[in-house]
Write a structure and sequence with these properties.
Length: about 300
């Protein structure tokens, strides 16, 4: 049994398989071709934080595969009344075939997985957002071909998205240029535990830049995220001041490759982390990115429950 708790829970070969399946599953969806490999299977979705895309993509995706879903929130379940996560895992995983969790600390989802009888998927934690990065890379490859050897510019917070981009770069062989404001860098402890080391000018892994414009030079993809992630709202005022120069604008896009793409996992704040003319402009693929959450997650659920299905 496999869990998907962080990006490096799967290998490059497994990603190649999932992306091939996502392409086929997307084709079936677009042509209204019925595909019900998960008939009689149930997915429990546990949300300890808000969501639009993750909720809709997992729920619609599971129904489209012939399965059904149970939606739980902290407030509406005993999780909000201090039932231990381990007990919740033991109970929920006796009744369903698959669990998706969006929560706070990574240690919480790891504790759940350790006591679960069924595969557990990370739908976002403070540390990682692997389903989103999987969708982002699938989207990049749909538009531009293989991401191997390419450069991604990360402009903004050293958050769950940034951490996951770094994991993905090491696995799939591309480079991330990271520019975060001082005080909001990627957690060095996390970098150590990921076993990632900074490689300069070698076409892979990552490099830090103090100026966001420098990080965008020659990039094939420019991407950013909200200044204040869920769970960090108390820091909002300080963050607004610190992140003022980390707004992806036309100049940053001009510094990147002429055919560079722009991505944002959404929800976005126009005028904060990105100018409206960039996110709503011709280089932006944010709507494809959001839609592809569903297609890659359907392929992921198929893989976790049925193994390698032939394409
Ligand atoms: N990008 C993403 O995970 O969106 P939601 O918070 O709406 O699920
Ligand atoms: N970094 C953001 C992503 C939201 C999808 C957050 O954690 O709130």
């Amino acid at each position: 049994m496999k869990h998907y708790l962080q990006f490096n829970d799967l290998t490059a070969d497994e990603y190649a398989h999932i992306f091939a399946r996502a392409k086929e599953i997307k084709r079936k969806f677009k042509s209204y071709e019925r595909y019900h490999p998960l008939a009689d299977r149930t997915l429990a979705m546990i949300f300890e934080k808000a969501s639009t895309r993750t909720r809709v993509s997992f729920e619609a995706g599971m129904y489209q595969l012939g399965g059904s879903v149970v939606h739980l929130t902290t407030e509406g379940s005993q999780l909000g009344r201090s039932e231990p996560i381990e007990d919740s895992a033991k109970v929920i995983s006796r009744m369903v075939d698959l669990v998706m969790i969006r929560t706070f600390e990574q240690t919480k989802i790891e504790a759940f997985a350790a006591h679960s009888r069924v595969p557990v998927i990370n739908g976002l934690t403070n540390e990682f957002h692997p389903c989103q990065i999987m969708a982002d890379i699938f989207t990049f490859e749909e538009h531009r071909g293989s991401i191997a050897g390419k450069t991604v510019a990360w402009v903004g917070d050293g958050n769950n998205m940034a951490n996951t981009w770094l994991q993905a770069a090491a696995i799939l062989g591309f480079k991330v240029n990271v520019s975060t404001p001082r005080g909001y860098e990627i957690d060095p402890k996390l970098l150590g535990s990921l076993g990632l080391s900074q490689v300069k000018n070698r076409g892979s892994s990552y490099e830090f830049y103090s100026k966001p414009l420098d990080a965008c030079q020659g990039a094939h993809l420019v991407t950013t995220d909200v200044w204040t992630s869920m769970g960090f709202e108390a820091e909002n005022t300080a963050r607004k001041a610190a992140f003022n120069d980390w707004c992806v604008d036309r100049k940053m896009m001009q510094a990147a490759q002429s055919d560079a793409l722009f991505m944002h996992c959404l929800p976005a704040h126009r005028g904060e982390e990105v100018e409206a003319e960039v996110i709503d402009g011709p280089q932006s693929v944010v709507w494809d990115e959001a839609e592809n959450r569903m297609h890659v997650q359907k392929a992921l659920m198929e893989y976790l429950l049925l193994g390698k299905v032939n394409t």
